[in-house]
Amino acid sequence: MLTCPLCQHPLYPQPQGLGCSNHHHFDRARQGYYNLLPVQFKRSQDPGDNAAMVEARQRFLNSGHYQPLADRLTQLATGIAPAISRWLDIGCGEGYYSARLATTLPSAQGYALDISREAVKRGARRSTDITWLVASMARLPVADASQDLLISVFSPIDWQEAARVLKPGGKILRLGPGRDHLLELRQQLYAEVRDYQDDKHILELPETLSAESVERIRISLSLPSPQSRSDLLAMTPHGWRASAANRDRIIKDGLTVTIDGRFDCLVRRPA
Q1: Cβ(108)–Cβ(85) below 8 Å
Q2: Which domain holds residue 199?
Q3: What is the CATH classification number for the domain harbouring 41?
Q4: N or C: which end of the chain has fewer CB within 10 A?
């Protein structure tokens, strides 16, 4: 099911790692993940979220602030569970959603990947029931038509690659931000808050994918502690786009924000 990122041949278990017929070998890290991101495919020495960002997201998610989103994601996945033998979380971060999905679908083989090594290291500590991968979302090291379900949570997704690895009839569950997601935070950080078009991704679908359903979830979230507000800033792009003065003010003061999530279910058309 996994493929070599260098030659796209199938990968097979080998002592201490994975290898292909062209003698490319990838070690299994001591934390339990595989690094399938060759150096020539990296745009920087250590791409993706750094350790500080990953730790902030882990604290925030472990505190249960986004639990309603995770609960609904697993409920939607359970609705198609009988058809799932393999699933893949694209852009898994530190594995909060992946680990919950593995618990919900114990009979299915789960894979989770992210370009950030720091994130995947922490994901591998969450669950040993998942195959964890450092890999590019634009070059998925996964065989054609091998997946029943793809998950994407607040992460970019390459629709062509997603369609390639999905079986005909396979589905994508995408959770992305709605128009009002973190609106109050954005209002405090920026002089002008631009309208966000939360359906623009649907306009970019290849012909092999079709939108099946849309569902929205809206929550008012109070963040009374400075740590929770600091973590929210650190785990979103808004934290490093805003001025230091605005960041300090938000961390100091109380904050209630709107969590506006959009669930899209998409299906791979039959061949």
Answers
A1: yes
A2: 12-268
A3: 3.40.50.150
A4: C
